[in-house]
């Protein structure tokens, strides 16, 4: 860690009269797990959509490894080394687990065989379900399929949009350990949007806080926990599942 991988500078996004992001700036260092928290409507997913080029900002600059992302079309973002999962699972439900991973690899510009996809399913603990239709799997297992589909592109930066949503307490704890392992095993940098504060604070090296489209705080988990602006705007009295 130490070198900046993702640089967000003065990003502003407007939807008509609504300012979804208002001059947001922060850096994500290489090798970090960086948490991004804030109440519903704070602009977290909008920022993910800017980084992956689904939205064009009205103002500001984005750089990956010192090179602008704003000139990169959405279909080439994965070639730059960025992959993401979504808040709402986006699998091909009638396809098998293996087919989902293979299709994900194809759409991400990498040519991989069934052996590569099976190895990734083995890594996420789903090799024995490779032939099952995705729709037949429990919600938490579908989330692991989506992770495998993102990882098959061998990204440098992985964006996780509420990966713990819908999981029980034990599954959330397992997910935290899994994300820490991802960082170690795949030399990944992770940007994590999540409402489960216990997860964010346990695994993040750095946390940024958004409120009404503005960045109101940033620092280590302990610094963010103690920040009175964060407590007032977001954490309140419930630091486990604040939404």
TrEMBL record:
The lineage of its organism: Bacteria, Bacillati, Actinomycetota, Thermoleophilia, Gaiellales. It comes from the Bacteria. One of its GO terms (cellular component) is plasma membrane. Residues 6-237 form the ABC transporter domain. It comes from Gaiella occulta. This is ABC-type branched-chain amino acid transport system ATPase component. Signal peptide: none annotated. InterPro entries: AAA+_ATPase, ABC_AA/LPS_Transport, ABC_transporter-like_ATP-bd, BCA_ABC_TP_C, P-loop_NTPase. GO terms for molecular function: ATP binding; ATP hydrolysis activity. Keywords: ATP-binding, Nucleotide-binding, Transport. The keyword Acyltransferase does not apply.
């Amino acid at each position: 860690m130490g070198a900046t991988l993702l640089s967000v500078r003065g990003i502003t996004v407007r939807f008509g009269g609504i300012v979804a992001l208002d001059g947001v700036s922060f850096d994500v260092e290489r090798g970090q797990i960086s948490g991004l928290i804030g109440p519903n409507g704070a602009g977290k997913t909008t920022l993910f959509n800017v980084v992956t080029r689904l939205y064009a900002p009205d103002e500001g600059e984005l750089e990956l490894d010192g090179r602008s992302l704003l000139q990169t079309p959405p279909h080439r973002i994965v070639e730059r080394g960025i992959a993401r999962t979504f808040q709402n699972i986006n699998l091909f439900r009638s396809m098998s687990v293996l087919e989902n991973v293979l299709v994900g690899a194809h759409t991400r510009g990498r040519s991989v065989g069934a052996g590569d996809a099976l190895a990734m399913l083995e890594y996420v603990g789903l090799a024995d379900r490779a032939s099952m239709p995705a729709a037949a799997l429990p919600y938490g297992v579908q989330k692991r399929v989506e992770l495998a589909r993102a990882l098959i592109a061998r990204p440098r930066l992985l964006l996780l949009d509420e990966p713990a949503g819908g999981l029980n307490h034990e599954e959330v704890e397992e997910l935290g350990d899994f994300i820490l392992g991802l960082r170690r095993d795949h030399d990944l940098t992770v940007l994590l949007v999540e409402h489960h504060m216990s997860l964010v604070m346990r695994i993040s090296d750095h946390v940024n806080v958004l409120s009404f489209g503005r960045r109101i705080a940033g620092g280590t988990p302990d610094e963010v926990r103690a920040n009175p602006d964060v407590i007032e705007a977001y954490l309140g009295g419930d630091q486990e599942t604040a939404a």
